[in-house]
Amino acid sequence: MSEDGLFELELVQPAVDDAGPRLVGPGAVHVPGWLTPVQQRWIVERFGEWTRGPVPLRAATLPGGHQMSVRTVCLGWHWQPYKYTRTASDVNGQPVLDLPDWMVRLGRKALAAAYTTEVAADPSLAALAGDYTPDAALVNWYQDGAAMGMHQDKDEASHAPVVSLSIGDTCRFRFGNTQTRTKPYTDVLLRSGDLFVFGGPSRFAFHGIPKVFAGTAPQDCGLEHGRINITMRVTGLS
Ligand code: MD6
Ligand code: FE
C-alpha cells in the first residue's frame, strides 16, 4: 500500500469503545484508537529501519550522569539533554535520518483529528493543522520496566503543538500542570494506536510515563512486547 493510501484510510471501526477526541487539559487532547492496526504495523516496520542507523537507538545520559531507561532514535534533528543538534554528537557523530514527508502529513491529520471545534473549543488551535510542519521526531522505545520522569518539552524555540503516537504496550501517561512537576495531574492510559496532542496553554505542561504495562500490546499492532512512542515537534531552529 502506498504511504498516502495508508493514512487516508477511514477509521471504519474504532479500536476503543467511544473512541473520539477527549480534552484532558486546555489544548491537550487524547484520541484513543486513532491509528488502525495496519498503520501501526507499517510504522513498526519503519521503526525497524530507523534503528538500523546511521544513528542507533541510545539511552541518553542526563547531566547528573544518570542514563535514561528509555532508548531513543531521532529523525530530522537529533535531541540530546537538553538541545537539538544536526548530528548525534553524543552518540556517534553521524547525521540523523530525515523526517519523512508522510510524517508531516500524518502530523497535520493528527492536529485536525484532535482539535475539532467541539473538543478544543478554541478555533485558533483548529486553524493550526494546515500549516503544521514538524521538523523533528523523537522515537522512544520502552522495554523492561522503562519509564520517563516528569518533564517539560522546552528545548524547542517554537510553541507549536507536539503530536504523540503510541504503539505496543499500554502505559500510564501522567499529564500535569505548567507550574510544578507534582500534583495536580491527570493520569491517562495510552494504548496502542492512541494519539495525544499537546498544544496551546498545555504546550509546556509537565508530563511523564510512570509505568508501562508489560505484555499488554495487542496481537495485531506489529510489536510482541515493548512500547514505541513517536513525538513530532517543530524545533523553530534552522
Ligand atoms: C511518551 N512522551 O509518551 C513520552 N512529550 O513515551 C512525551 O514525553 C511527550 O507524549 C510531549 C508531548 C507528548 C508526549
Ligand atoms: Fe515529553
What can you tell me about this protein's structure?
- This protein has 238 residues and is of the alpha+beta class.
- The protein has one domain (20-233): Alpha-ketoglutarate-dependent dioxygenase AlkB-like (Jelly Rolls).
- It is built from five helices and 13 strands.
- A seven-stranded antiparallel β-sheet has the order 1-2-11-8-13-6-3, with helices on one face. Strands 7-12-9-10 form a four-stranded antiparallel β-sheet, with no helix packed on it. Strands 4-5 form a two-stranded antiparallel ribbon.
- The chain is globular, with a radius of gyration of 17 Å.
- The termini are far apart.
- The site of N-[(3-hydroxypyridin-2-yl)carbonyl]glycine (MD6) has 12 residues, from strand 8, strand 11, strand 12 and strand 13.
Question: Can you describe this structure in just a few lines?
Answer:
By secondary structure, the chain is α+β, with helices and mostly antiparallel strands. It contains five helices and 13 strands.
Instruction: Tell me the overall shape.
Output: globular
What do the pLDDT scores average to? 93
Report the top-level CATH class: Mainly Beta
Distance between the termini: 33 Å
**Class by helix and strand content?**
alpha+beta
- The radius of gyration over CA amounts to 17 Å
Largest sheet: 7 strands, antiparallel
Q: Could you give the order of the helices and strands?
A: HEEHEEEHHHEEEEEEEE
**Low-confidence spans: pLDDT under 50, at least 5 residues?**
9-14
Main β-sheet, spatial strand arrangement: 1-2-11-8-13-6-3
In helices, the fraction of residues equals 10-25%
CATH superfamily membership: Alpha-ketoglutarate-dependent dioxygenase AlkB-like
Strand content: 25-35%
Total of DSSP H or I helical runs spanning 4+ residues: 5
User: Can you list the ligands bound to this structure?
Assistant: N-[(3-hydroxypyridin-2-yl)carbonyl]glycine, fe (iii) ion
CATH architecture: Sandwich
Task: Give the domain tally.
Answer: 1
- The name CATH uses for the topology is Jelly Rolls
Count of DSSP E strands?
A: 13
